Amino acid sequence: MISLKINGLQVSVEDGATILEAAQFLGFPIPTLCYMDGLSPYGACRLCVVEIGEGPKAKLVSSCTYPVEEGLSVRTGSLRVLRARKMIIELLLASCPQSKTIQDLAAAHGVRQQRFKQEYEDCILCGRCVRMCEQQMMAGAIGFRGRGQNRSIGTPFDVRSEECRLCGGCIYVCPACQLRCTYTEPDKAVCGGCANLPPPCAEKEAFNDRMCYMDPCVACEIEKQG
Fold this sequence. Notes:
This protein is α+β, with helices and mostly antiparallel strands. The chain has 4 domains: about 1-75, Ubiquitin-like (UB roll) (Roll); about 80-120 and about 180-195, no CATH class; about 130-175, Alpha-Beta Plaits; about 200-225, no CATH class. About 25% of the residues lie in helices and about 10% in strands. It has a 5-stranded mixed β-sheet with strand order 2-1-5-3-4, with helices on both faces. A hairpin with a 2-residue loop joins β1 and β2. α2 runs antiparallel to α3. The protein starts with a strand and ends with a helix.
């Protein structure tokens, strides 16, 4: 067993577990997008970032790919983490603003604007479909192509793959394909239809961290009603 601290709580978890698995087991919420149970961790979206270490040596890592270590100190809801997640969500909104999955993430994390160039793409390169096709459907009909801004997902040479059984598994797990947000202003990046409040305690200099992990948080609900 590995002993570590998560949000100040001393815990023991099995060797080989990731920070995300340990946190989820203990009930600490960490948002994910490219991660999915049953598929290998990929660490593409970086939405599951957490802060490890103390003081000036503390750093952000993706919890879905980072294994637990003896004596590790983890913070899943520090102000630095929450700000990083908001920035990531803004970037995701710039790529695929009509994804209801991403819009719901924006609402849940208090993202009210999007400051980057709008692209209106249909793919955020999370790799869910590629891993689903290879690891669950045992087909490997699609994969990543190209590099950098030319990176995309599809079949080799854009020719219909004989390995594809038209099972629809790739569409089922795609956060861009599952549901489309129905807001009526195409140029507005954040619809706000499911608006929520971010943890108010994390915005106070006295705390610089989340004070609870209840869902919903009692303090957040009281402030919302006020």
